Amino acid sequence: MERLIVAIDGPSGVGKSTASRLVASELRIPHIDTGAMYRAIGLAAVRAGISTRDEKGVENLASQVHIEFIPGERGRILLDGEDITPLIRTQEISMAASDVSAIPGVRRILVRLQQEMGRRDGGVLEGRDIGTKVFPETRYKFFLMARPEVRAQRRYRELLAKGQATDLETVLQDTVKRDEQDSTRADSPLSYDHSYTVIDTSDLSIDEVVSRIVGAVRAIGA
Question: Is it the case that residue 222 has pLDDT exceeding 70?
C-alpha cells in the first residue's frame, strides 16, 4: 500500500513547523521535521569545533553521528541518543544548519534517512527540497512563503518567548542572509515549480493555512 507523503517546503519563518504538525494530526500520519535533522548536524559541528563550512569535516561528522527523529505531537530529535530538541532553535544553530545543508554529502546522508522514514510510515515532511529532491514523485506538494519582515517578526517573537536576547533588525538581516544561502546553494536549492500549490502565509492565521493544505490534499486524493 502506497504511503501518503505530503511535502511542505519554504524558507524559515513561514510557519512550516506549526502547520506541518497540525496537518499531520488532521491527516493522522507522522510529522517529520527534516530541518531539525540539519540543525542537529549543525549543533554537532559547533560542539566538535568543526567549521560549518568545512565540507569534508562536516560530511565525515554526519556519517559518524546517529540522528533519530521521534514523531509525535511535539516531535523530538535525538543526536547519539541525546534529546537535543530544546538546543537547536537558536539563531546560531539556524545559521549553522543553513551552512551544513549546502554540503552535498550531508544532504545525501539525511535524504536517505528521510526517504526511509517516509516510505515506512508515510508522513508530512517539511523542509526546503522535499518536493523537489526527497519525494519529487508525491502529488501533495505545498510551498509556503511570506514577506521577509513578517517572517522576521515571527522569529523575533519566538526567540523572545524562549528568553533569547536579540533585536528585530538582526533577525531580519539573518532571515535575508539565510534566504540567499538557501536559494543559491549548488545542491538542492530552495525552489518550487508548477507541481506545487503556493500559499502566502503573510496575512493568514495558522488555522487558515492548515485548512487550505488539508483541503487540497483531500481534493487531490478524491
Answer: no
Question: CA–CA separation, 143 vs 163, rounded Å?
Answer: 30
Judged by phi (left if over 0) then psi (alpha if -120 to 50, else beta), residue 212 lies in alpha
Q: Average pLDDT in the 184-205 region?
A: 86
What ranges in 65-147 are assigned the alpha helix state H?
91-100, 104-121
- Residue 32 dihedral angles phi and psi, to the nearest 5°: -120, 110
CB 8 within 8 A of CB 125: yes
Q: What is the pLDDT of residues 51-74, one digit of tens each?
A: 999 999 999 999 999 998 887 767
CATH homologous superfamily, domain 5-221: P-loop containing nucleotide triphosphate hydrolases (3.40.50.300)
User: Distance between CA 43 and CA 195 in Å, rounded?
Assistant: 33
200 three-state secondary structure:
strand
Q: How far apart are CA 201 and CA 14, in angstroms?
A: 6
Whether pLDDT at 76 is above 80 = yes
